């Protein structure tokens, strides 16, 4: 019974997401798969954060969970996002997208949007100071 209730709540939420302005329930057209370009190498990226991590690899760690966009998972789209961020008083802030693939092809369910939200909710472990210019690479792969 519990699973049935959860499923129907999810189905209702899913259907209402795709109602048009007049409230008509139109069939949602799933996006087509997009090619994924290779992820760039940021080893030569010399920011304050990267230099401090080279000196002390155990400087801090990030505890986070990565959520896969529902629509992109359904069409089996893979991708990645590279984000820059700062650590301010031990918390993640000033998050910006450096690069992504596929890029902005799926505006309402983009990897970028999910990656930013996941990084915002992350917890910095072992560091409570300030560091600028950190890089996070988030890769979205489907299990075989």
What is the topological layout?
Layout (H helix, E strand, L loop, with lengths): L1 H16 L30 H8 L5 E3 L6 H5 L4 E10 L2 E11 L9 H10 L2 E3 L5 E10 L4
Antiparallel strand pairs: 1-4, 2-3, 2-5
Task: List the helices and strands in order.
Answer: HHEHEEHEE
How far apart, in Å, are the first and last alpha carbons?
31 Å
Number of structural units classed as domains: 1
Mean pLDDT: 76
CATH top level label: Alpha Beta
CATH topology: TolA/TonB C-terminal domain
Name the strands of the widest sheet in spatial order.
Answer: 3-2-5
Tell how many strands the DSSP assignment holds. Answer: 5
User: What class do helices, strands and sheet pairing give?
Assistant: alpha+beta
> What is the overall number of helices?
4
CATH architecture: 2-Layer Sandwich
Tags for this model:
144 residues, alpha+beta, TolA/TonB C-terminal domain, three-stranded antiparallel beta sheet, two-stranded antiparallel sheet, 4 helices, disordered N terminus
Give structural notes:
- The protein has 144 residues and is of the alpha+beta class.
- It has a single domain, classed as TolA/TonB C-terminal domain (2-Layer Sandwich).
- It is built from four helices and five strands, in the order H-H-E-H-E-E-H-E-E.
- The strands form two sheets. It has a three-stranded antiparallel β-sheet. A two-stranded antiparallel ribbon has the order 1-4.
- Strand 2 and strand 3 (91-101) form a beta hairpin.
- The protein is elongated.
């Amino acid at each position: 019974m519990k699973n049935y209730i959860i499923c129907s709540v999810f189905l209702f939420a899913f259907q209402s997401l795709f109602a048009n302005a007049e409230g008509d329930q139109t069939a949602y057209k799933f996006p087509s798969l997009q090619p994924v370009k290779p992820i760039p190498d940021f080893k030569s990226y010399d920011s304050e954060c990267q230099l401090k991590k080279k000196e002390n690899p155990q400087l801090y760690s990030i505890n986070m969970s990565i959520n896969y966009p529902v629509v992109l998972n359904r069409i089996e789209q893979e991708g990645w996002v590279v984000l820059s961020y700062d650590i301010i008083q031990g918390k993640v802030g000033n998050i910006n997208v450096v690069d992504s693939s596929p890029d902005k092809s799926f505006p309402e369910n983009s990897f970028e949007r999910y990656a930013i939200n996941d990084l915002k909710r992350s917890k910095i472990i072992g560091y409570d100071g300030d560091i600028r210019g950190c890089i996070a690479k988030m890769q979205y792969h489907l299990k075989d």
